[in-house]
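User: what does the whole thing look like in 3D?
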Amino acid sequence: MKRELKVEKKMMGKNDGGSGASDRDDRPGEPTQPPKVSRRGVLRLFGMAAAGAAPLILLPPVLQKASDAGRVVESQGEPAKGPGGRIRQWTMIIDLRSCDGCQSQGTPPQCTTACVEGHFAPEPMEWIQIFEHELPGGGTQFIPTPCQQCQNPPCVNVCPVAATFSTPEGTVLIDQDRCIGCRICMAACPYDRRFFNWGDPPVPPEALLADYSPEHQVPAKKGTVMKCDFCPDMVRAGTLPFCIQACPNDAIYYGDLEDDVATNGKEIVAASRFLSENQAYRLKEDKGTKPRVYYIPGHGEAVGRDTADEGRLPTEWPWVERVKGAKTWRR
Ligand code: SF4
Ligand code: SF4
Ligand code: SF4
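Assistant: Here's the predicted 3D structure for the full assembly of 331 residues, as structure tokens:
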């Protein structure tokens, strides 16, 4: 079903069943008139207005150093701004009605595979992991689970050296140059979304060329903690995160709560209305972590999944093949 491109803004109240963007509900200066959400506005949001085209699949930022040495460093840490100079508030909405764990493709979850390949994430980390969860009435659903980008993040609150931090855009990052590997943050995360890099993983040559940034965490650093970074550098560069580009069912949306807009690369929605009309919820809301990742209830029914079909294929690690024969990286 095609959703509206022009919609009224409908901010979600505190009694919205916990599904609303409640961490910004009471922010002063909210417009009283409902704004329009236009395709042009969304293209501008993702830096695509000049191209006037669908989202571009760019080289991963980790590869940009060789061709554009200064740009990644310059953009890092500078929050993206929307209309009126307001800072973006990145969000992710995962529509579980469209996620079948990639069973219909007969492949491992493409979001997971694309994320690990794009970030050269050390095996066996899965920054966006697909959990199979039993439904109350029988059968199962698949729940893609990245870092929930909490607005009250326990992981940040416990880090003794401030290596993990929240950005003005609402993302939670880890600076592996500061991380001392104490793993207290891993214990504090109620979603088990942090991973420790124990090993000396081989890395492909292009990863060694990367200009390290907490926004992409390449190359990986032994003895530190890693996780989903929400790909803010990709969004600033005008493309969607790897996981979203790779989803064959367009189940994942990325957007800006400040501008009340989100897209899966195929359609554009008003974020608050999309959330409220579809009874979106967040994981473990009782923990008070205020995640920036929202879920629309479902079990893959929009793509014909039978809830009795269990299991999924294991994640692929395409870059591991490429690294065979390359020099093993050590720090
Ligand atoms: S999901 Fe875990 S790692 Fe991510 S921000 Fe929340 S507490 Fe931190
Ligand atoms: S947002 Fe980026 S880091 Fe997070 S799961 Fe998606 S591709 Fe991976
Ligand atoms: S979110 Fe998309 S890519 Fe990921 S498992 Fe579900 S259908 Fe596959």
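In plain terms: The chain has a mean pLDDT of 80. The longest strand covers residues 90-95.
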